[in-house]
Specification:
4 helices; single chain; alpha/beta; globular
Amino acid sequence: MGTCALVGAVDFNVGHFRSQRPDYVIAVDRGYAQLKAAGIEPDAVVGDFDSLGFVPDASNVAVFPAEKDESDMELACRKGLAHADELLLYGCLSARLDHTIANVQLMSGLAQAGVRVFGIGDAFALAAIAGGAAPGELRFAEIPPEELIGPYANFVSVFAHGGTARDVCEKGLKYAFEHEDVPDTVSRGLSNEFAASPASITVGAGTLLITFPLEAWGALL
């Protein structure tokens, strides 16, 4: 179906956003101001608009009450899935820690539902993958480590989320292993490294959160 980009309340990576040419763009509450400041017109605007401070005067606005069980980002993701099968979440992984955790939880649930989803920061990306009827997988083409020179260097970190992840394989990385169970109570998955070879991370059951340098984005398969 394509890619939907959702822009939240905090500063977002405009350069990366523009490079992706998303098929559908949703402003999430104060994300409307972020997009307008960048000269970008969203296809839809979703929120209760408590952080924006006003309801945009446009025909593509969906207004929700401030007192509700879902976050604005969760409601926006539901709308996005009507237009795309890949979601890119911008402006959602900094500022208030509780909102960041909520968005990570949301990404985990989306992955468990079979959605390809990423959170985009200034120098890193966060992916969520989940196993089930088929293994969850994230793959990269060969990345020369010397090209990964930003704040995250060539580090790729893999963590279980929401319980032990089963049958985890990390191939083509400096510290490779196969068919292991990874609990969500340890830091073992921190700071693995890309090597000069294609890499893949898979999980048979459970959910993994994976961070990697944004410079490796172009190698995603």
